[in-house]
Amino acid sequence: MGIAVNLVTYLGGTLHLPSSTSANVVTDFMGTSFLLCLLGGFLADTFLGRYKTIAIFSIIQTLGTGTLALATKLPQLRPPPCHGSHTCKQANGFQMGILYIALYLIALGTGGLKSSVSGFGTDQFDEKDEKEKAQMAYFFNRFFFFISTGTLMAVTVLVYIQDEVGRSWAYGICSVSMFVAVLIFLSGTKRYRYKKSLGSPIVQIFQVIVAAINKRKMELPYNVELLYEDTPETSRIHHTDRFRFLDKAAIVGEGDLERNVGPAAGPNPWKLCPVTRVEEVKMVVALLPIWATTILFWTTYAQMMTFSVEQASTMERSVGGFQIPAGSLTVFFVAAILITLAVYDRLIMPLWKKWKGKPGFSSLQRIALGLALSTMGMASAAIAEVKRLEVARATGASATTETLPVTVFILIPQFFLVGAGEAFIYTGQLDFFITQSPKGMKTMSTGLFLTTLSLGFFVSSLLVSVVKSVTGGSNGGQGWLADNINHGRLDCFYGLLAVLGVINFALYIVSAVWFRPRKSKPAALQMETIVNGSSTAENKC
């Protein structure tokens, strides 16, 4: 977090990259970090197990932060300082190559850690033991406390060190911290509990799809009882009429029932899948419209870590004799999340229970609130940028290094609205994907959630590139996303995101109305859902 939240100022101020390029480097880095969580989860589920995955990828992340510290320390790995506003030399290919190696080593390490560390924590407790189940709750409370503490330290102390002491010192602190963490983690090797990997649900999904495609020319039997099923009665999912093409994976063809030998005894799962497995895949497919319409929120979120930080860097940030680092404005995210969750827990939930008889908003309602608040946040950002540009033109500011006589606190509404939206959509997405994902594919809830974050950042990069190209910025003109944001029209870009947010919200409402939620689970399964849900909440932080 300490690297991502203030990286855009380093790319623009030290490496002299254009504004849009700096934003895309950050969003590509964040998107890749979350996308590689899928790789980490696959390796942990299929080959390495969680312990080895954590050990290997934490070492990779430590190497990445160490490389980044060196890249920001050695003068040979950055261009010379600017001499006047028109003589800034951009970082060359070699310098950018070293930076990319550092960032993507960190992204790779992050992917392995995020996918496994919380799950490995749950492995240390026996869910069948009531005492240990209670201890697990304390574990997560402390776990999230330290995550929150780390986030606050990142956006305050680390960002301040980066701006006022030196980037290499701040990244060096990250490296040393990771190295110490790896040693502490390895010291418990003999005391840990280890659970056997059960295989990746991604493979199971592809098995159903491949089997259905291979049997696409076969006719479905009139009686669904003729479809293949070998799942124990207590764990079966009854056949549904949705997405009937996938049912063909359960058609028994010639030679399909020939048994494999060895540990994988049974029909070849790439040729024949039981009805329960097919229904699990159908359940995942039914989640995709909701999944797709939540991606844009994280595109909006990405702007708070890129262009909003660039905005702040040009504005008056002094409070008394202290100047707030531009990257530290993201602390308002944390404040917005804490305030929103407190108000929701202590005020909204009791009132909602009295009025509707339900203990709070449903997961779909919380997602809707998050999408609405993020759209309002982009509208607020556009208004604030109009004011900032008016001041820039009135004062004749030509360089982004000039401080404009306008307070940075006019940006607080956009940070607060998107932050409050994150509080709702984050908990809503987790709740939705955990409770609506099939029980036999529990880790899919984590994967679906993380891919919305990843794709949100990648969509941001794509949108920035398209807007820069269409509005003329790539052909020497200024365009909306000019190299110098004082010469661009960032307000129009924010306005575009607000319009896209309105359209996306309408599509979300249609998807939410179409979606048929699973029936309520028994109390015992609800507790299991809560436990498994807690283990995924770490991944985004």
From TrEMBL:
Key words of the record: Membrane, Transmembrane, Transmembrane helix
GO cellular component, one term: membrane
Subcellular location: Membrane
Principal location class: membrane
Keyword Transmembrane helix: yes
One GO MF term: transmembrane transporter activity
Transmembrane segments: 29-48, 55-74, 94-113, 143-162, 168-186, 284-304, 324-344, 364-384, 404-426, 447-467, 493-515
Membrane-protein topology: Multi-pass membrane protein
Protein's GO biological process: oligopeptide transport
Entry keyword Chloroplast: no
Family listed: Belongs to the major facilitator superfamily. Proton-dependent oligopeptide transporter (POT/PTR) (TC 2.A.17) family.
Name this polypeptide is given: Major facilitator superfamily (MFS) profile domain-containing protein
Organism for this UniProt entry: Gossypium tomentosum (Hawaiian cotton)
